[in-house]
Amino acid sequence: MHDSGSQWNSDRAGRTKVRSRRGFTMIEILVVVVIAGIIAGIAMPGFVRATRGAQLRTASRTVLMAHKYARSTAVLRQTQMALLIDSVGKEIEIVSLTGGPNSLASRGAFLDSRASRAAQNVLDDDSGSSGPAPAIASELVRRFGKDVKVEAFSSERGDQELEGYFWVNYYPNGMSDGFELTMADESGKRAVITTEGISGSAEVEFPRW
Question: Residue of 34, 59, 179, 202 with fewest CB within 10 Å of its CB?
Fold first, then answer.
């Protein structure tokens, strides 16, 4: 009697293990796959839009960071700085100026460190200085996202553009050339960055979001 009960319990445990190892049926797997595909199809366009928007937001934050860095560094080091905006290469660069003429009024002064950027022909047009050439050093370079482009640039000083390059001067007294920079991505979204020359305040707006 005892052996019969033990055998029955053993058979029952075996059947339970068999049922527990059965797993999912093919229909259940197909249902899960179909549901996952529907969710992905709904979410993907929004994900793509969000990714493009993220590149533009990152680029605008990069410009704001570079503006603040150049301004604070000019004050702390008591030297003149500039922010270069390369609309062709889609990057920004912060450079410092030491020695030489104590003025950044010369068009293209900071571009002189790169012979390939063809600034030599405008270096001496309005500086009015015959002193030694300034030493130019690159401080920081950051690239925009591949889908972000520079759409427009304007400065309080006026003509600060050369062959797709724009620049902003920063002075040891904390002042700078106020500017407005408009960037856009492939979806048509825009970011407009505006800075004030005296206070150094900066803000960004997204008019087509």
Answer: 34
